[in-house]
Write a structure and sequence with these properties.
Blueprint: E1 3-11, E2 16-25, E3 30-34, H1 41-48, E4 57-64, E5 67-68, H2 74-80, E6 85-88, H3 102-112, H4 118-131, H5 148-160, E7 166-170, H6 178-195, E8 198-203, H7 206-212, E9 215-220, E10 223-229, H8 230-235, H9 240-248, H10 250-253, H11 256-265
Parallel strand pairs: 3-8, 3-9, 6-7, 7-8
Antiparallel strand pairs: 1-2, 1-4, 4-5, 9-10
GO molecular function, one term: ATP binding
Main location: membrane
Family: Belongs to the ABC transporter superfamily.
Length: 271
């Protein structure tokens, strides 16, 4: 396993947000964490990288490879976060400073992880942009000059540039239209195939789960209520809440297999 979470709890002084969560992500797999807004998915993802707000406390075990993430100090986390574990966020606009160019973001990101030569950093950045379908001209642009889909591609380029072993993608298509969403996820799937990274994919959209996930866990009120292979859960959900979620997704309830084949006929091509 690349990531193993055991009996994780996250709470404020007044309220517990994550309750005794245990799950594992295998090397190279696409693992989906599914649940409605407020179920605790994002809090769980933030706990993995020690990115929780100061008023939230986590206890339990988060084992990434051979290290318990909750026991690492700030310097140790800096060495891991961004390099071995990378995040792609829903709020891609918030990931970029408006008065800095894309070039400056790439330069600072690499410099923070020990790449000292400026020309090497530029070469790496342009190659990363080109790998997500953006030409070298995007290197000197500002974030506000890019569309939502383009900016999310830049986020993916940044997240994967240093070849992390685990990518945590938190609701990354929520702010995009359906065509852009499909293209972004096709791109991420291709990058996963190229690099062999594992993906922890946080979503409430069962269409994306059906198309991309290998395994999944369903979260409700801060607890994991069901976990297993994609086809087993989609075809034979065991928990009533899971059945309700699937039934509420029209594209799923009318037939999983036939629906997938129909979507593939109209799938946009990434370019």
């Amino acid at each position: 396993m690349i990531l193993s979470i055991e009996q994780l709890n996250v709470s404020t002084k007044e309220k517990q947000l994550v309750h005794n969560v245990s799950l594992s992500v295998r090397k190279g797999e696409w693992f989906a964490l599914v649940g409605q807004s407020g179920s605790g998915k994002s809090v769980l993802s933030q706990a993995i990288g020690q990115m929780l707000p100061a008023n939230l406390k986590a206890n339990g075990t988060i084992q990434f490879m051979d290290q318990n993430m909750l026991t690492l100090d700030r310097k140790q986390m800096k060495d891991i976060r961004g390099k071995r574990i990378s995040y792609i966020f829903q709020d891609y606009h918030g990931s970029f400073t408006p008065f800095r160019t894309i070039a400056q973001h790439f330069q600072e990101y690499q410099k923070a992880h020990g790449i000292s030569n400026k020309e090497t950093r530029k070469k790496n950045a342009i190659e990363a942009l080109e790998s997500v379908g953006l030409d070298a001209s995007f290197y000197k642009r500002y974030a506000f000059q890019l569309s939502g889909g383009q900016l999310q591609r830049v986020s993916i380029a940044l997240a994967l540039m240093l070849s992390p072993e685990l990518v945590i993608a938190d609701e990354i298509t929520t702010a995009l239209d359906s065509v852009s969403s499909h293209k972004i996820l096709q791109l991420l799937a291709q990058k996963q195939k190229d690099t062999g990274c594992a993906i922890l994919f946080i979503t409430h959209d069962w269409r994306h789960v059906r198309r991309y996930a290998d395994r999944l866990a369903v979260m409700k009120d801060g607890q994991i209520i069901e976990t297993g292979g994609k086809h087993r859960i989609l075809d034979h959900p065991r928990h009533e809440y899971t059945r309700q979620l699937i039934k509420a997704a029209p594209i799923l309830s009318s037939g999983l297999r036939s629906g997938l084949e129909e979507e593939k006929k109209h799938e946009p091509t990434f370019s």
